[in-house]
Amino acid sequence: MAPPQGKLSWNSLKKRAIDGIGGLVLVIAQDFKSNEVLMAAFMNQEAFEKTLETGKVHYYSTSRNKIWLKGESSGHVQTVKEVFVDCDMDALLIKVEQTGGACHEGYRSCFYRKVGKNSVEITGKKVFDEKEVYGK
Asked: Torsions phi, psi of 45, nearest 5?
């Protein structure tokens, strides 16, 4: 089968169910300059369409059961630079310009812990204190 050409439609993507919520696609956010992986999350159709329409990344929160604009409470938004779809049409890679940190715990990336055979080491850099943003 030839790869799709032209506009990517939501209907051409393969969806999955997570925690009993159907119609979701895995999304990996990556820094467009450094290629650092910033976070993984999910989109539903509304989040996908809002992301393409606004140029700001929207996700579907499985814990809150709602759409959210990344950075809506922190100001740490993700501006879309490029969108890629994988070969199976079931995951998106969005290259973004990240303002501040991607992780709600204050780190630049959600992947700030390196796992060894017998240890977990914090290797990421904090860029903000979550208390400043979330009042925790």
From this structure: -60, -40
Q: How far is the first Cα of the chain from the last one, in angstroms, to the nearest whole number? A: 50
CA distances from 64 to 21, 59, 61, 68 (A): 11, 11, 5, 9
Q: What domains lie within the chain, and their CATH numbers?
A: 20-134 (3.10.20.810)
| CA nearest neighbour of 57 among 30, 91, 37, 34 | 30
Q: How far is CA 9 from the centre of its chain?
A: 19
Neighbour tally for 121: CB within 10 Å: 10
pLDDT in tens for each of the 136 residues of the chain? 445 567 889 999 999 998 889 999 999 999 999 999 999 999 999 999 999 999 999 999 999 999 999 999 889 999 999 999 999 999 999 999 999 999 989 999 999 999 999 999 999 888 887 655 545 5
Two structure tokens written together for 115: 């796992």
